[in-house]
Amino acid sequence: MIKKIIVAFLLVVSFQFSFAQIGNMLNGAVGGGKTGSSTNTSDTSGKTSGLGFEHRDDAKDSINISFKYLGSIKSNRFDSSINDFSKYYPIPYYMQYLGNPGTAAYSLIYTPYMKAGWDAGFHAFDIYKYSLDDTRFFKTTKPFTQLSYELASAKEQVIKVLHTQNPSKYLNVGFEYRLISAPGTFVTQNTIHNNYRIFSNYQSKRKRYNAYFTLFGNIIKSSENGGITNDSFLLSPYFTKRFSVPTNLGRDSGVIPNPFSSSVNTGNIYQDFTFFLRQSYDIGKKDSIIINDSTTEYLFYSKLRFQHTLTYNSYSYLYQDLGTIPAVYQNWYNYSLPNLIDSLSSNDKWKVIGNDFSLVQFPDTKNLAQFFLAGAKIENIRGSFTNRIDNVRNTTSNENYNVILHGEYINKTRNRHWDISAKGEFYLNGMNAGDYNAYANLARFFNKKWGNVALTFNNVNRSPSYIYNRESSFNLGNSSNYKKENITQLKASADNSLFSFSVTNYLINSLMYFKNYYQADQYNKLINLLQISVSKKIKLARRWNWYTDIVLQQTDGAAPVKVPLAFTRNRIALEGIYYKNLNLSTGVEIKYNTPFKAYNYSPWMGQFMPQDSTNIKNLPEIDAYLHFRIKSFTAFIRAENLNSFDVANGFTFTNNNMAAPHYPYAGFIFRFGIQWNFVN
C-alpha cells in the first residue's frame, strides 16, 4: 500500500508540472488576445488576436532533448530510424520465446549471466522488465511526451507512455509506463505484463551537488501450458483453430481469450520493486561567465566527489497451479499429489538494501571523462521461501549480508584516439564472499575506414544462483554443495560506416544448469564458446537497401550450452523521403537459424534446460512490412510469419515453426502500431 501511495504522489507531482506548463500557454492565449470577430485581426505588435486561425510555426515544436544512462558520461539522442522494428518492440529480434509474446525467452546469441554476488536465479522474463541499467535520465528544453500503441492478431496489445520535462533549468522529472498483453493462440499461454518507472535528476545552480533518483516496478504474469501434448495435432484438420489443441498444463480449454484478463491459474507471477537514490557533492574550482547584465553562467571544475548511493529492492517469484494434473507433476518432477483437486505453489521472496559510499577523483579538472573511483558497499539481504499444497504452508527464511569493495578508472581522451575503461568489485565478506568481477576495455578511433576498434576483457567469479540452494522453495531435493562459476569473456570489435564486426570467446567453468525439469547439475569441464558476428548495410540501388546481420557460433556438442551454428536476419527495403515529409521504409524481413537441439522449458522452475532428443528445424521466418514517419508521427504495418502458409488443409497459416519441443509459434500475424511524439 505504501508503494502505491508513493507512486501516486510522484505521479501527481509530475502531472502538476505538466498542467502548470499547459496553464501558462492557455493564459497566454486567452489573456493576451482582444475581443474580436471570427476573422483575424492584428494588434500593434503584429501578433494575431481574436478567434480566427493562425499559421502554426514549426519552430515552436522544436526541442533539444538528450539523455544519459546511469554512470555514463555520454549524452544520447532518440533514434528516429524506422527500418528496424525491434527498436520499438519489447522483444529483441534474436530472442526465442515460447510461442506467445510475454512468455519465457532466451537468446539465440548465447550470453552467459555475468554478475557477481547475490542472484535469485529467475531470468526467463528479463527482457520484459524495466531495469536500473536501461533507466534514462533526461535533459530537455520543453516538456516532451511519447505515446505508443501496437495491436496484433490474437488480441495482442502493447501500450507505452513516456513523459519528461524540466520544471527548472536544474531539475528534470518524468515517468514511463508499458503494458504487454497477449491472450495467446494456444490455451493457457496468456500473458499480461505491467512496467512503471518514475525518474528525476537534479544539479544545483553552482554545480556542486547532483542527485539521480528513480523508482520502478515490474509485474510479470505468464500462464504456463507445458506445451502441446502431441505435435501431430498441428497437422490435423480438426485442430486448425489452435485454441482447441490439448496442452499438458492448465484446465482452461473452454475459456475465450481475453486481453484484459490478468488471472493466472497455472503459471508464473513475478514482481519486483526498486528504489534508487544517488547523491554526490563536489569539491573543486569554481568559475563563471557573464552572459549579460542579468545573466551569469556558473562553471565548476571538480577535483573530488563524495558519492552516496541508497538502493532498496524487493522481489517475489511465484509459481502456482490451482487445478493440477497429478500425472504431469509425477512424470516431470517426481512429485506426488494426493488427488485431482490439489493446488500447489512455490514462492521465493527477497528484500535487499544497499548502501554504497564512493570517492571520485578527477586528475584533469576540465575533463570529467577521466576519473578514479574507489568505494565500499554493504548489502543486507533477507529471503523467505514458501511451499503450499492446498492450504498447508511451509515457510523458512534467511538473513545475510555482503561487504563489497569496488573501484573504477575511466579515461576518454578528448581527441577520441584512446579510450580506457577498467573496473572491478570484490566481495570481501558475507553471503557471496570470494565473488569478484574484473572488466577492462581499450578502444581507439583509427580512421574512417576502420572506425572504432575495441578490445574487451571480462572475468566473473560468482556464487551459483539461489534457486540451486536447498533453502529455495523451487529446490526439489537438490544439493547445495556447488562450486563457484567462473566465466571469462574475450572480445575484439570494429565499428564503422561500412560494417560492424566482432569476435567473442567465452570460457566457462563450473556452469550451473537444470539437466531436466527439476534436477540441478554442474558441468565440471571447460566450455569454450566462439562467436563471430557481422552487420552491414548494402546499397542495392538508389532507394533499395539490404541490411544483414550474421552470427556464427561454435561450442562443444556435449556441453549443456545449446546454440545454432548460424543465425541471420536480413531486411531488404525500399527507403527514402517522399513528398518532403514522408519518411518511408517498406520491404521484407527474413530471419533464420540452422537446426539445433533447442532448450526445453520447465514451467515450475521457470528455467530453460538443455535436451538432446529433439532437433528443431524451422523454416525461415518471413515478414513483410510498411513503416513510415510523417514529422512526429510514426506507423508500422506488418504481416508476420508468412512462412506458416499451408495448403494441406486449405488456405491456412498452420505450418507453425517451433520455439522449443512441443511449443509452437503462432501462424500468420497482422500487426499495426503507431508512435506519436508531442512537444508541449
Entry keywords:
2 helices; 51% strand; 22-stranded antiparallel barrel; 680 residues; Maltoporin, Chain A
Fold and architecture overview:
- The chain has 680 residues and is mainly β.
- The protein folds into 2 domains: 1-55; 56-679, TonB-dependent receptor, beta-barrel domain (Maltoporin, Chain A, Beta Barrel), CATH 2.40.170.
- The chain contains 2 helices and 34 strands.
- The strands form 7 sheets. The protein has a 22-stranded antiparallel barrel. Strands 1-2 form a two-stranded antiparallel ribbon.
- A hairpin with a 6-residue loop joins strand 16 (392-412) and strand 17.
- It is globular and about 80 Å long.
- It starts with a helix and ends with a strand.
- The relative contact order is 0.12.
- Mean pLDDT is 88; it is low at 4-54.
Sequence-ordered SSE layout with sheet pairings:
Layout: H1 2-31, E1 41-42, E2 48-49, E3 65-69, E4 95-97, E5 105-107, E6 136-140, E7 144-152, E8 156-168, E9 171-182, E10 191-203, E11 209-223, E12 266-290, E13 296-321, H2 326-333, E14 344-361, E15 370-389, E16 392-412, E17 419-430, E18 436-445, E19 452-462, E20 485-495, E21 499-509, E22 511-514, E23 520-523, E24 527-539, E25 544-554, E26 566-578, E27 582-593, E28 600-602, E29 607-609, E30 621-630, E31 633-640, E32 658-660, E33 663-664, E34 669-679
Antiparallel strand pairs: 1-2, 3-6, 4-5, 7-8, 7-34, 8-9, 9-10, 10-11, 11-12, 12-13, 13-14, 14-15, 15-16, 16-17, 17-18, 18-19, 19-20, 20-21, 21-24, 22-23, 24-25, 25-26, 26-27, 27-30, 28-29, 30-31, 31-34, 32-33
